[in-house]
Amino acid sequence: MERVGQVELATLYHVIDHYGMFDIAKQGIGARVEAGANLLRLRDLNTPEILIRESTLRLFAPIS
Fold first, then answer.
1. Are residues 64 and 5 in contact, defined by beta-carbon separation less than 8 angstroms?
2. Do the beta carbons of residue 28 and residue 9 sit within 8 Å?
3. DSSP 3-state assignment of 57?
4. How many domains does the chain fold into?
5. Domain interval for residue 30
6. At 43, is the secondary structure helix, strand, or coil?
7. pLDDT in tens, 28-52
């Protein structure tokens, strides 16, 4: 996996809340974003992996 950048915590919550999965990310703190196969894997040490289509996340925040 290639590391793409960082997503702000508020952005992560916004995206996950939009998809009805807010509880999964309650513990999240600046999840890393990695690209792969048109999906982004959002993860940190306290949460399960969350897969969101890259094009969807880009609607909320540019990837640095």
1. yes
2. yes
3. helix
4. 1
5. 2-60
6. strand
7. 434 444 444 344 555 554 555 555 5
